[in-house]
Amino acid sequence: MRTADEWFDLYGESHQNTTNKIIHWICVPTIFFTTLVMLCSIRLGFFPESFGIAGSVGGVVLVLAMVFYFRMSPRLFVGMATFTFACWLAMELMFVFLGDQAWKAALALFGVAWVFQFIGHRIEGKKPSFLTDLQFLFVGPAWLMHFIYKKIGISY
Fold it and tell me: How far is Cα 142 from Cα 78, in angstroms, rounded to an integer?
């Protein structure tokens, strides 16, 4: 597996333009969150409802994502797990207020965020990284987290 810096260098190649970076700071967390909401709306029938997030497709994908982040960097894993927990809390509120319709609101936000992502890459003049390797869908949020780590002086 590549190191965190190798992933970030590769990802960063198509994320040099300031406008594209700003778009990513807004849209990548939005896509992460809305994906979580939509995938957690898909229940795995062999788990009782009391399993919560663990009994959904979202729970399975989150386990895979967390393994990816831990293998990438145990310290980045902590940041990503913290961000994921915040997303989970927000998702729970969304389910409280919107119930079974939460996935529809998430889908709308997801679509808008992806439109802006592609606008950003059009401005950048480079294709999104995930078109070469789907693992970059996991790298994007960690790439943003590594900037936060650098800003506050945490090595990863």
Answer: 11
Determine contact, residues 37/91, Cβ cutoff 8 Å.
Answer: yes
CB 55 within 8 A of CB 39: no
Q: What is the 3-state secondary structure (H, E, C) of 32-63?
A: HHHHHHHHHCCECCCCCHHHHHHHEHHHHHHH
Nearest one of 23, 5, 4 to 122, comparing CA atoms: 23
Question: Distance between CA 14 and CA 23 in Å, rounded?
Answer: 13
> Could you read off the pLDDT of 57-103 as tens digits, one per residue?
999 999 999 999 999 999 999 999 999 999 999 999 999 999 989 99
* pTM, full prediction: 0.92
Token code pair at residue 57: 């497709």
Report which residue type is found at 76.
L
Show Cβ contacts of residue 156 under 8 Å, excluding neighbours closer than 6 positions.
Answer: 4, 73, 75, 76, 79, 146, 149
Q: Where are the domains of the chain?
A: 4-9+29-152
